[in-house]
Design brief:
about 180 residues, alpha+beta, 6 helices, elongated
Length: about 180
C-alpha cells in the first residue's frame, strides 16, 4: 500500500512540476480569443464534462494537478458534510420512531443544505476554471507547435500578346504558416 501511495504522489508531483504551465500561459494568452481548431490538445467540452462529474478531473486531464486537487478535495469535503447531514437526519427519523426526544432536529437538514450548496459552488467554479485553463493551454500549445512550410515551384505559362505568344517563366514561392 505504501508503494502505491508513493507512486501516486510521485506522479502527482511530476505533473505539478512538468505540466503546470497555466500560471505562465495565462500571462501571455487571452482565453476570450480562443476558437476551436483541429489538433487542439485539450477538448474543452470533455474537460468540462469530467469536471461536472467530479470536480478537479478536468484539471488533471489538462496537466494542472495543483489546480485540480483543491477542487477535488473541496468536493469530497462537501460530500462528507452531506453524508453527515443524511446520517443525522436518518438518526432523527429513527429517534422519532422510537419516541426519543431530539434536541437539535434541524441540524441534519442544515448540514445537507450547506453541503449541497458548497458542492454546487465548487463544481461550478471548477467547470468555469477548467474551461479557461484548457483554452489558454491550447493557445500555448499551438504557439509551441507552429510549423512553417516553404515551397518553391517552377513557373512556366504561355502568355498571349497581341501579335505573338511567348512563354513566361519564373519561380513561384509559397510560404504557409500553421
Amino acid at each position: 500500500m505504501k508503494k502505491i501511495l508513493l507512486i501516486l504522489m510521485g506522479i502527482i508531483l511530476w505533473g505539478i512540476t512538468v505540466n503546470a504551465q497555466y500560471r505562465i500561459n495565462k500571462l501571455k494568452y487571452d482565453p476570450t480569443t480562443y476558437e476551436h481548431q483541429a489538433g487542439d490538445r485539450y477538448c474543452v467540452p470533455f474537460v468540462s464534462l469530467t469536471s461536472l462529474i467530479l470536480p478537479g478531473t478536468g484539471h488533471f486531464i489538462c496537466g494542472e494537478f495543483g489546480r485540480g486537487i483543491p477542487f477535488m478535495l473541496g468536493a469530497f469535503v462537501s460530500d462528507g458534510i452531506i453524508a453527515t447531514g443524511l446520517l443525522l437526519k436518518f438518526t432523527d427519523i429513527l429517534n422519532a420512531a422510537f419516541g426519543v426526544e431530539n434536541k437539535n432536529p434541524d441540524i441534519g437538514m442544515t448540514l445537507i443544505t450547506v453541503g449541497a450548496v458548497s458542492y454546487l459552488i465548487i463544481t461550478t467554479w471548477a467547470i468555469l476554471d477548467v474551461i479557461k485553463v484548457a483554452k489558454v493551454n491550447n493557445l500555448a500549445y499551438r504557439d509551441r507547435h507552429k510549423t512553417t512550410s516553404i515551397n518553391l515551384t517552377p513557373y512556366l505559362e504561355p502568355v498571349n500578346l497581341a501579335t505573338s505568344t511567348s512563354m513566361a517563366t519564373g519561380i513561384k514561392l509559397t510560404i504557409t504558416f500553421h
